[in-house]
Amino acid sequence: MKGWLHLACIALMCLLPAATRAAPAVTASQDRRIAITFDDLPWASLDPNTPLPAQGTVPPRIAAESVRLLQAIEGTGTPAIGFVNSARLLVGGQPQADRTAMLDAWLDAGLELGNHTDTHADLHIVGIQAYEDDILACDRVLRPLLAKRGREPQWFRHPYLRTGRTPEDKAAMGAFLAAHGYRIAPVTVTSSDWIWAAAYAKALDRGDAATQAKLRAQYVPYLLRRVNYFEHRSIRLLGYALPQVMLLHANALNADTYPDFVAGLRARGYRFVDLDEAMRDPAYRRADKFTGALGTSWIHRWAIAAGRSWKFYGGEPTSPKWVTDLAGVPPE
To answer: How far apart are CA 332 and CA 323, in angstroms?
Structure first.
């Protein structure tokens, strides 16, 4: 089947009733490992147009949320890598010390940083040359920041998980990134955490503590269902539980729920590893031939390349309508 037909099948399967979504049993011997990654550092809602408070350029609420996220990661003892959009460090085109300090705090906590382009550019829209320029703009910020600690950037995450509209574009990007010392950071566990985060931000803005609590209580089980879904899909495709790579975003909701999410995964038997360890699994050496616009999991990409039928893709957990309504986005 062609790639776009597969994507249509994925969308249709998401509408099937739960009874048709049975997943294979997972044995106790499965070695469950997961690497946690965060996109859009220093903060997902921090951009050059953020209204400035009286002092500094980071609004106090964002500064406090960032501290909470780092404390949550450190407190759980989990490795993590954050992917940086360097334009978020600017105001009026000028770098801001307090924004850069948020990245320094990340490194001081013993965590990693990777390149996510300067402006969160979309490769499928801007084209190869502009995209490469955006990568290099972020590299010029990230490389000296890491060099102060005797390190250098090695991981790149494609914004929107769009990796090239043609095989030729994908090959060109792979060669460019390798020439600059970068490895592509894939994602096997995707989620719509950005939708939940938008709803949570609105509840925070209006001081609605009840809705905040309701979102937190339902968000963690939603994330755990997403992990479970892709775990089972990896078993169906590969025959074992793949060491997963999960994409989250640097936002208030993740800051306030991360310890509960970690506890839920540990209760299921997961160990937390860094991105490099997860990527040692041979499955990650499979070719990614996907050229569609959908930011889908690498497990689905490999399944499409393997010619899996439409039955493989169904049952992805979706966000409840009350959450999408509150976030102001269409239902999934």
So the answer is: 10
Give the 3-state secondary structure of residue 183.
Answer: strand
Position of tokens 């990527």? 279
Q: CA 250 to CA 44: how far, in whole Å?
A: 5
Set out the domains of the chain in order of their start, with CATH numbers: 3-12+32-327 (3.20.20.370)
Q: Which three-class secondary structure state does DSSP give residue 18?
A: helix
d(CA 256, CA 24): 32
pTM reported for the whole predicted model: 0.90
Q: Is the peptide bond before 167 cis (omega within 30 degrees of 0)?
A: no
Report how far residue 259's alpha carbon sits from residue 156's, in angstroms, rounded to the nearest whole number: 26
Model confidence over 239-270: pLDDT tens digits? 999 999 999 999 999 999 999 999 999 999 99
Q: How many Å separate Cα 309 from the centre of its chain?
A: 26
What is d(CA 14, CA 310) in angstroms, rounded to the nearest whole number?
A: 11
In the chain, what percentage of residues exceed pLDDT 70?
89
The per-residue pLDDT for range 204-223, each reduced to its tens digit, is 999 999 999 999 999 999 99
CB atoms within 10 A of CB 306: 11
